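new request in #modeling-help
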Amino acid sequence: MRDVYVVGVGMIKFGRYPDKDVSQMGAEAGVLALKDAGASIKDVEMLVCGNLFQANAMNAQKILQQIGQTGIPALNVSNACATGSTAFREAYIGVASGMYDATMAVGVEQMGKMGLLGGGARSGGESVEGVLGSGLMPAVFGQAGVEHMRKHGTTAEHFAKISVKNHKHSVHNPLSQYQVEVSLDDVMNARMVAYPNTLYMCCPTGDGAAAALLMSEDKLRQFTSKPIKVATSVLTSDPYTDRDLTMPDVNTLTQNAAKEAYEKAGIGPQDLSLVELHDCFATAELLHYENLGLCGAGEAGRMIDEGRTELGGDIPVNVSGGLLSKGHPLGATGVANIYEIVTQLRGQGGARQVEGAKAGLAHVIGLGSACTIHILTA
Amino acid sequence: MRDVYVVGVGMIKFGRYPDKDVSQMGAEAGVLALKDAGASIKDVEMLVCGNLFQANAMNAQKILQQIGQTGIPALNVSNACATGSTAFREAYIGVASGMYDATMAVGVEQMGKMGLLGGGARSGGESVEGVLGSGLMPAVFGQAGVEHMRKHGTTAEHFAKISVKNHKHSVHNPLSQYQVEVSLDDVMNARMVAYPNTLYMCCPTGDGAAAALLMSEDKLRQFTSKPIKVATSVLTSDPYTDRDLTMPDVNTLTQNAAKEAYEKAGIGPQDLSLVELHDCFATAELLHYENLGLCGAGEAGRMIDEGRTELGGDIPVNVSGGLLSKGHPLGATGVANIYEIVTQLRGQGGARQVEGAKAGLAHVIGLGSACTIHILTA
């Protein structure tokens, strides 16, 4: 396997684009990534598109039609919320294999104004969770938070502080869907969605796209003096567990992926400068502090209390604003957090820059099940 | 890049399975491929599922749940009619890269009794073809046949003979959706769908699944003494062409893919023992004789007249029965023709065996656009 580097990233502001279609948004992000690298579509040897809601609509090919129809291999992948990061991973393997010197991943989604209750693959009439209604995402992540409260004495306020932090971060991200601070009172007093997550503790729906251009070491010399290395790329699915059927295990999948990623990269949580993790709900972010080994079991509440994961803390988490404020257009998310890590490792984070960032971890979890972890280094 | 081998294949009979779901059919094919190799799901390090109609339903993961939930990377791909072959290709790259020693590709589709008129990505209101109705598949491939008639003097009977041949082959394939011979009169007098293709010259709709287990050279020694090598794996998309907008070019895509495949494999059309090509319509098969270089431009009509592509001819095409008779459950097709090539190269084709088969080519084209060519050798 060869080393692989990200040499270009592009992202359109997450938000609402009722007048664009999926492939237009994807093409815009793709062009931005090419411009960022100073490359042309003729340099790209394979395109992988990640999109969930129109997974069979040949968006990779439609994106190529708009950027430049060069006849290269194009394919479409989907993997629940890990759709974009799975597309990135296939593009990564394409270069790592030696088959291609330059590949592009585009993650894109147009969610419109759908509700929060898209249940994902665990819901539906076939499963116990589906029948009980507990397979719905807000319920799953609410319950997981309650379980943490029961076991470790975590409070609703701990979870609410996650939302305050991420909204505060997003003010400095011009591509974030929302860019407004919220107070602890705002969060605690917002409409309850599924205890303990109030409205501001749930990611919004929205549209968006992000793209990344990956290259081999030989090829990138023509394009950049600041390549960002993909130190490891991990994808896992749910292992068999004797879990309580009324409460899907949202933790094991990430724990397994993290263990594998740290081993393969030879980089541990103590070596990370920043983390972009899958805060689809505030409860999820807190649980993932422990799942990713950023702190020990039961210590996540104290971690947020001490401000360790804020910008300026020892391990800033979701300085982009995270899914909670930056937004979560499903297929785009996995590439968007690569965008943030690359931006930070280049020192281009502006007011949200993590000083001296050397290594960043991007984490995405899709129930149903897929978890990706990418560790990138400057 | 490492050499990659197919060590196990599995396929369920194509047909109608209203009482099964997509992941059940996929899991059945997967288990058959494992059994064929004498392997266990614990040997598999990555699973790629190709499915079109439920492309975002996490079928790769659902298949794993049924076979054995080992926590391995699982992902879902779609690429129009080339969905299954694209899944196979991603599984191939996984082993070729050195990342994995064993991967599995499953292609599966449940079409039910939908009509023939699913237009594919070229149809729809946005395009000239869509507005004119010419983007509909039967029209596209009918027109392409008419164009061949105009240029080369090919007759409707030439195309009809393709259907007679493939139905005749299918009688010897127990996994074929249909296993009945049809006469030239039957074909010529059947209901016209889109000139010159009558009903028997159009592939049926149906359900089905196929799977392939791929391994590195080191790993396969535990499992088989008769590995089938993947000599090359090519995927292309539509290049930019100044095509007549009223008549999509169904030829260029295959021509480009074939050129690349022959160059990469160091194997030419003259070295092939058999071909499984994408005969979604009888006209398509005849055009692809030329597109794949099995004969020169304008010679395809004579080729079918002389029986060269029949079982027993010098280059048998679609001895499985082809899409016309074996069936075309979209996502399954690309893996099903790998199944046939592997079966033949092992000498396990029974009454439809191509004597002394040493090299086979599997071709799939998806308008919208994706073309795969895999060349396998014994």
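bot summary: Residues 116-127 of chain B have pLDDT under 50 and may be disordered.
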